[in-house]
Structure formats: structure tokens, C-alpha cells
């Protein structure tokens, strides 16, 4: 988001147009985040993660193909007005998908999946890792764009695919699940259940019963 004006200018937008396009994507981000707030408890976390991941992947591939066709490996080319608007639309659709799925849920779900005993430590690690990779990407994005060109969008698209597959196979639904019951959810999971001892579920159940 913070490199949006540079990205649009790189794609051939004029200065005013690149700044206005960045404003448009920012507004899309705000409205899509509101959508997430309204629907997350109705449809659940996994649905938004998976839908958002698929939408983000499609947009990454679309922008990558578009830039490859116009600029090629040399990086020389010019977007027509129609293709420029198409690129802007794809980026806005991508931003919307991120803002109602991976953006806010990347903070919400970690706060729901950790048992009470390790919740503070788990959240601390989550925030630290998030900030670290935000810093790394922020420092490297422009250099990667210059060297990888359209390949950068396929690179990030590959990561989006891995993230979405990880959620599909390994992240349980946490909607309407009390934190005290998360050990039971993990125990019932086809993969993580192998690593959750039976007494952890029992302790979780006793803790919730005591609190009640």
C-alpha cells in the first residue's frame, strides 16, 4: 500500500494519476475492512481466508500477465488507457480481498487459537514476526520490482497459494469457539490432534467449567 504511487508510476501512470490511484486503493482498503467486520462472524474465518486467498492469487496472476505482455523482460513498454484501468481494477480487487480476509484476520485468528496458558507469548511472537516481515518487504520491494519485473507478482502469488493451502489443510474454524475450548478443537483436528495430549483437553474442560 505505501508503495502504491511508485508502483502506478512504474506502470506508466502520470504523477497525478498515480497519486489518485493510490487514494482509490486506500479507500477500497477501508471499505473492504468494514465488510470484513460485518461478515466475519456470519461466514467464519476459514471462508474469508480461502475466498480472499483465491481472489488475491487470481489478481496477482492477472497483473503479472498484463505487465509481462506490455513490458516484457526488457521492461520497456507503455500501458494504454484501457490497460492502465484494467491494471488499476485488478490491484483494487486484490486490495479488497486482502482487506476483508488476510489483513484483519491475520490479527484476529492468532488471538483466538492460543490456549490461555500461552496466549501472551503466542501473540507476542505473532506481532514480532508480522512486523519483521513487513519491514523486510518494505525494504526490498522496490529492488525486487526492478530486478524481477512482472515475475514479482508471480513470486508473491506463489506465497498466496501456499498461505491459502495452509489454511485449507491446517487451520481450523474458530468462529464461536471460546478460547478455553481451543485445545478441544486442536485435538479434533486431523493433523494437530496428534500433538495435543489428552490431559490438555481435560485441563481445558476443567478450566472452562471452573470459570463458569
Automatic annotation (TrEMBL):
PROSITE patterns: MFS (PS50850), SUGAR_TRANSPORT_1 (PS00216). The keyword Transmembrane helix applies. Keywords: Membrane, Sugar transport, Symport, Transmembrane, Transmembrane helix, Transport. It is a multi-pass membrane protein. Residues 1-175 form the Major facilitator superfamily (MFS) profile domain. It is found in: Membrane. One of its GO terms (cellular component) is membrane. Belongs to the major facilitator superfamily. Phosphate:H(+) symporter (TC 2.A.1.9) family. This is Sugar transport protein 4. It comes from Sesamum radiatum.
Amino acid at each position: 500500500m505505501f508503495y502504491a504511487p511508485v508502483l502506478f508510476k512504474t506502470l506508466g501512470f502520470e504523477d497525478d494519476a498515480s497519486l489518485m490511484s493510490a487514494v482509490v486503493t486506500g479507500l477500497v482498503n477501508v471499505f473492504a475492512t468494514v465488510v470484513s467486520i460485518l461478515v466475519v462472524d456470519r461466514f467464519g474465518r476459514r471462508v474469508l481466508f480461502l475466498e480472499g486467498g483465491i481472489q488475491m492469487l487470481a489478481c496477482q496472476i492477472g497483473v503479472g500477465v498484463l505487465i509481462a505482455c506490455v513490458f516484457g523482460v526488457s521492461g520497456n513498454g507503455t500501458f494504454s488507457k484501457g490497460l492502465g484501468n484494467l491494471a488499476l481494477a485488478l490491484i483494487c480487487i486484490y486490495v479488497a480481498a486482502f482487506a476483508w480476509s488476510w489483513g484483519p484476520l491475520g490479527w484476529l485468528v492468532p488471538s483466538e487459537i492460543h490456549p490461555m496458558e500461552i496466549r501472551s507469548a503466542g501473540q507476542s511472537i505473532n506481532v514480532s514476526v508480522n512486523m519483521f516481515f513487513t519491514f523486510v518487504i518494505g525494504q526490498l520491494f522496490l529492488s525486487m520490482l526492478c530486478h524481477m519485473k512482472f515475475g514479482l507478482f508471480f513470486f508473491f502469488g506463489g506465497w498466496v497459494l501456499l498461505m491459502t493451502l495452509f489454511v485449507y489443510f491446517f487451520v481450523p474454524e474458530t468462529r464461536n469457539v471460546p478460547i478455553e475450548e481451543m485445545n478441544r478443537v486442536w485435538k479434533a483436528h486431523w493433523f494437530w490432534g496428534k500433538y495435543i495430549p489428552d490431559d490438555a483437553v481435560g485441563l481445558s474442560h476443567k478450566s472452562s467449567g471452573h470459570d463458569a
